[in-house]
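Exercise 4. Each item below gives a protein and its sequence. For each, produce the structure-token representation.

Item: DUF1266 domain-containing protein (Streptomyces chattanoogensis).
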Amino acid sequence: MIERQLYEAKERGDTQGYLRILAENELLLDMDQELTDEDPDTVHHVYAERPGDPPGIRTLEVRTRGDMVPRRSDVVVDRVVLKTLAEWFGDSEKVVIEVNPGSPSGMRFPHPDRVAWARIGKEAVPPPERGELLLTDAAGPLDGPVAHALACSAPLALRNRTPWNGVRDAYTDYLGDLNILRRDWGVTSPAEADEAIESLYRTRYVPHEVEAALLARKAIVDFGLEPGEAFEPGHIYQWYQATAKLAQDAGVDVRQAQEAIARIRRYEERFRADGVLPPDGMVHTLAAWDFCRGITVIRVCVGARFCDTDFLTETVPEFGALCREAYGSWEDYSAAYSLARVLWGDDDEFGEVYRTTVRWHQLLTLDPDSPWRNIPFG
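Answer:
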């Protein structure tokens, strides 16, 4: 945990080490929401008043994600890195930077050293370049229905380097969350957010032709095939025939549904070789793709101020219940999400999207700190 690392560096008097930890992680600072809405291209800092500070001295509170404070009605957060703080406030005699105020990991810097901070920031690997990171919010839910549902969105939390169980004031930051909703979902209002969440709950974004092929095979398997028999040539032909009928009945393009079979088979074969699926394993539905994203959209809506945390804690367990209905284990759920992601973004290249997807699966199913190792799926 970042906050523990900061506390340990502080206790041993290692200021340089403390700054290096800050430089390798995203930091959050407060902004005035009204001014930010009016002028989003400018950072509108909110300064804190400290009793005893000399006249003209202002305190800028900077927090790590694990020490975010509860939502305030007129304040939003912005992401920043140490190097940027050095550029803004280095050598300033009028600004005190206070990291994690009120926390055991907190530390005050009355006169930030522009040169030293910039050097440490330059030497550190910037957060966006460090790849995925599994983070846990010590104050967030760790068990129960809300924690289970949030764990279902862990692949995207991993990618975005945000705590998998975060229910605080931002998913990325205020403007970042607004941008995610606008760019990825065409959402610019709470009403549009409700529509997107409902569509994800109903799995309306799952590719229908792929889902038709998977459901057709599941019907064949449920009819009584032994493990492994579904891969035999005769049953492959049966799969094509069943897919055509199901697609036609569902109003899905038959040719596209049958063409999806070859892609499904290629990726599942590779998944079995790479341990994402067991030797006789297969995916029966891509619902995980929409469930994972639906929970994430709710989290992003909290950060964008389109809903509050009460809505999140009431709604995400409904997604978690759907996940339990559709899958039998975290491994099953992950394989389905993984298949959907590579079908969406890998273009049959087994390239970076594929490698990243497998890496997420391995981390979440094997890391002792992963919620998937600590929260029962069923």
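Check: DSSP finds 17 helices and five strands in the chain.
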